[in-house]
Amino acid sequence: MLFTAHSGANKTRPNSLDYFEAMKRVNADVLEVDIRKVDGELLLTHNRPYFWQKKNLLPLSYAFEFIKNYDFLLNCDLKKDGCVPDLMNLAEKYGVQDRIIITGSAGTETDRKAIRFGDWYVNSEYLPELFPQNAGKIRSLLEEFGPRAKGINVGYKKISDEFLSACEKEKISVSIFTVNDADLIKKYAAFPAVVNITTQLADEGLSALGKEIRK
Questions:
Q1: Which residue has the higher pLDDT, 8 or 54?
Q2: Counting C-beta atoms within 10 Å of the first and last residue's C-beta, which end of the chain has fewer, N or C?
Q3: Is there a contact between 97 and 91 (Cβ–Cβ < 8 Å)?
Q4: Those residues with Cβ within 8 angstroms of residue 24's Cβ, 6 or more apart along the chain or in another chain
Q5: From residue 106, how far is each of 53, 142, 153, 170 by CA, in Å?
Q6: If residue 192 lies in a helix (H) or strand (E), which one and from where to where?
Q7: In angstroms, what CA-CA distances link 83 with 38, 72, 109, 151?
Q8: Do the Cβ atoms of 200 and 178 come closer than 8 Å?
Q9: What is the pTM of this model?
């Protein structure tokens, strides 16, 4: 199972230099960033920035260089449709094709056909209702989406234990966000269908899972 340090983990500012600096000592598997295309460039930001904010935003290329240097995977959480082609090209340029996890706004036909590499976990807005009885439909839809669709990416408040059990039976991999409670992290880690947990409590989460915390 993967452990993802959400952007802003350990009380840092999301998508910032502070976040990346703090993550150097965190023994996570994956870092997460929010991505938007602003004036033709992929930048790290959750919300669309005002023009005077753009100069303070990090480019996605910074995150790519960082994960190469510090051996992380990168969850690219896309905040707007239409970013996938540029994401693919930039990841190829920086040689990080095997380090990319895609979530967020990637489910339009144009975007999903542009996913040439990386693991795509499909967000719930592109899926049937997350009920146990719909697990078979979700499995069929993932197969239609193609080999890059590795599973689903869902908020923990939207799912039940029964749904996770149904996903196990249907062999659906589930990535869960954003679990900011150590007891819940331990709970979800026990479900075989869960392949990733994303949290802002990087150190507490690692401790809950019995993993080493870098000093």
A1: 8
A2: C
A3: yes
A4: 70, 214
A5: 25, 13, 12, 23
A6: none
A7: 10, 22, 13, 20
A8: yes
A9: 0.96
